[in-house]
Amino acid sequence: MEFHKRTNMKLLEESFTLPPDMSALGGNGRGTGYPLYITAKRYHVQEVQVFERDSDAITVLAFHSTSFHKETWEPTLEALFEALITNGLGKVKIREVWAVDCPNHGHAGILNREVLKRKEFATDFSCERYAMAIHRFLLGAPKCFGVDFSKRRLVGLGHSLGANALLLLQGLQPVFPFISFIIVEPMVSPGDGHDLDKLRARLVESAKRRAFEWPDRETAFLSLKEDRRTKRWDESVLRTFAKHAMAESPSGAVTLACTPQQEQAMYLDVPGATRPVEELTRLCSLLPVHLVIGLKNDFMYGAPLSSPFKMLIYVPISPRVVHERLLDPASGRIYASVKEVPDIGHLIPQEIPKKLGGLVHELLALIMERQAKL
Known about the structure:
The protein contains 13 helices and 13 strands. By secondary structure, it is of the alpha/beta class. The strands form three sheets. The protein has an eight-stranded mixed β-sheet, sandwiched between helices. The chain has a three-stranded antiparallel β-sheet with strand order 7-9-8. Strands 11-12 form a two-stranded antiparallel ribbon. The two termini are 28 Å apart. This is AB hydrolase-1 domain-containing protein. InterPro entries: AB_hydrolase_1, AB_hydrolase_fold.
């Protein structure tokens, strides 16, 4: 179900930055500390302030895909809160939503640009590093921001890389109190990790050759809007991309916050496609996991398709095969629900954010209904 704006609702946001831990770093900036900034935003609307002290209300944690940024969720969240208000506040109680940047993406990527040039990050920024950054943010939030996530009822929402990071987060100690997960198009390989070798090589090549710089944000927006590879994105998503996925250079031009080198490092993360499957299998036996997949063959596994930036990708295995492996009952993975979305492929939050917001509202209603019965 897709929701169109019918109220005067305004999405409210607050920005948070967790600084590096320099206490254990040596004079050269290296050591046992944590050298990266972690950036996040908290989203809510005035109408949900009634849930601030409601012990049943949930906090949603949202994580983005490779080459995007935390604000890519904003159009989806607007539709989600719109659905919540339209359908009545009692059915779904959302206290707030938090979105966290992968440290080499978005605003975090800008703050960390110099540190990311180090050898240990330049060629090795894995899905696990995103999960570790999220974990560090959650641990540091009580002291730095006065928010104790260990006392919240958490629901995880992740797309692609963000879904993988959400799954890996569950294996880090201490474990935070998630009650359910909404996994959107996870970038995983349920079979042999080498299933994705050819895709990985092509994605790396595309990252090397894609557009990186524009004269200004408006030119970047117009370029993406007209490009046949990105014109399917919702216009609101394109706007957030031009605003938050780019950094201003000294010359006045804008460049991608996630550099081509960092994007390549993400694609070269072989365990990042297989280890999340292990966590997914384990979690399916413990908590409700809701899976959302697109039925159209495109970016992730289909052949052929242009990537969002300049290159054609030809992939040897269809998304249907991967989806069938994810859904194979013999794997031991039993999902709370599986939502198959027709006429859409991998980039669900980018292409149909309003419809996704309505779908997330439906899934949160199921999650809260189940919790009420426990």
